[in-house]
Amino acid sequence: MIEVRNLHKYYGALHVLRGMDIDIAKGEVFSVIGPSGSGKSTFLRCLNFLEEYQQGDIRFDGRLVGYRETAGKRLRASPRDIAAVRTRMGMVFQSFNLFPHKTVLENVMEGPVIVQKKPEAVVRKLALDLLEQVGLSDKTDQYPSKLSGGQQQRVGIARALAMQPEVMLFDEPTSALDPELVGEVLDVMKALATGGMTMVIVTHEMSFAREVSDRVMMMDEGLIIEVDRPEVIFGNPQQARTADFLRRVVH
């Protein structure tokens, strides 16, 4: 479903992603681990062109992401084409990014009604179903400020799902949460994984990555160090850099 070839990303002179090659299959739960500053979030944000990459290809469902090719030249895709790709990829951020002046239900309904122009009655039913799925059907009329961090992040997940994406991208979705609230968000993500959703997850929750992933990718300094099944990455890593990182973070 996602094909990445020779991906490079620069911020000025800083070479953040240095030639990444990876395929992610439909229905796969794919976790990305590695130290801070290794390029994990940048990689994720390139997948839906929130970050513009300078070299290489990202293809989603066979189509080039962010660019179009005309007469052998690569040009930036139109805003409409870029937006069309993003509607097919739900994204959940570290910060919850909810609209503070809208209720939980309104936050979840916003995208399908405003962006996809779907009828409000249809979207309302979908939103209520999703809020039940994430365990928040009793909070529909609350405002974000009245919710815990874990509840706000679950609203964020429901909001992303309301667009009915084909892939869900998670950028360290629990890093801003108090430790006791992490589990409730991970439980929602586990249920999604079990349901067959294609997911790409940047996470520092190693036990979660080990439990739910089909494959885990270790990154460092903008490079893929290794990619394998979680039992190999966590139980018998093939690269010394992976083993060293896990020794420091897995307790």
Describe the structure.
The protein has 251 residues and is an alpha/beta fold. It is 38% helix and 27% strand. A six-stranded mixed sheet has the order 8-9-10-3-11-12, sandwiched between helices. A four-stranded antiparallel sheet has the order 2-1-4-5, with helices on one face. It has a two-stranded antiparallel ribbon with strand order 6-7. Strand 1 and strand 2 (14-24) form a beta hairpin. Helix 3 (104-115) packs parallel to helix 5 and helix 4 (120-133) packs across helix 5 (149-162). The longest helix is centred in the C-terminal third of the chain and has 16 residues, at 179-194. The radius of gyration is 18 Å and the shape is globular.
Task: Evaluate the radius of gyration.
Answer: 18 Å
**Range of helix content:** 25-40%
Strand content: 25-35%
The overall average pLDDT, rounded, is 94
**Quick one: how many beta strands?**
12
Low-confidence stretches: none
Sketch the major β-sheet. 6 strands, mixed
Sketch the topology as an H/E string, one letter per element: EEEHEEEEHEHHHEHEHEEHH
Instruction: Label the overall shape.
Output: globular
Tally the helices.
9
Strand pairing plus helix content: what structural class?
Answer: alpha/beta
Q: Measure the end-to-end span.
A: 34 Å
Brief summary:
This protein is of the alpha/beta class and 251 residues long. It has helices at 40-47, 79-87, 104-115, 120-133, 149-162, 179-194, 206-212, 230-235, 240-249; strands spanning 2-11, 14-24, 29-33, 55-60, 63-64, 67-70, 73-76, 89-92, 167-171, 198-202, 215-220, 223-228.
